[in-house]
Amino acid sequence: MHLTVNGRVHELRPASAETLLESLRDSLALTGTKLVCDRGECGACTVLLDGEIVYACLTLSAACEGATVTTIEGIAEPDTLAPLQRAFIAHDAAQCGFCTPGQIVAAHALLAANPRPTDADIREAMSGNLCRCGTYPKIHTAIRAVANGEFRTDAP
Ligand code: FES
Ligand code: FES
User: Fold this and answer.
1) Could you tell me the distance, in angstroms and rounded to a whole number, from the CA of residue 101 to the centre of ligand 2?
2) What is this structure's pTM?
3) pLDDT category, 128, cuts 50, 70, 90?
4) Pocket of ligand 2 (CB under 6 A)
5) Does domain 83-147 have CATH number 3.40.1400.10?
6) N or C: which end of the chain has fewer CB within 10 A?
7) Which ligand has its closest atom nearest to the C-alpha of 54?
8) Does position 75 have pLDDT exceeding 60, yes or no?
9) Domain 2-74 fold
10) Averaged pLDDT for residues 121-142
């Protein structure tokens, strides 16, 4: 099967029960996407599949023929971190960091669809991503800051 990941086409031969998360991490060495619960509860494995948020631990690779996937590695810009990544750092929005890639991918999808989200929009969009360290207020602040234009790519 063919899968376009972060703009690069890959040829894969996944086992019938192989998940997209296993293909990304084990076949493509894209280990930014995390395995935590492995049952669709935490959002640590969040990626974009044809622009839509999915849990990669619940997605069969074999069902993704011809699809386009964006992982956390595809969010950063060529010469710099993405605004969301810089905002998470600036606002100390990661503690252990295990949930952070999924949080950022989910926030990226939110801001792509809704660049001016309300606080309720942010809470709703991020409700599928759990953080065991409890950094929710800082995650929210970081996303709010990007939505307010504080971390634009052309900003210093
Ligand atoms: S590892 Fe996929 S939702 Fe938790
Ligand atoms: S920063 Fe540790 S789980 Fe979120």
Assistant:
1) 10
2) 0.95
3) very high
4) 94-100, 131-133, 135
5) no
6) C
7) 1
8) yes
9) Ubiquitin-like (UB roll) (3.10.20)
10) 98
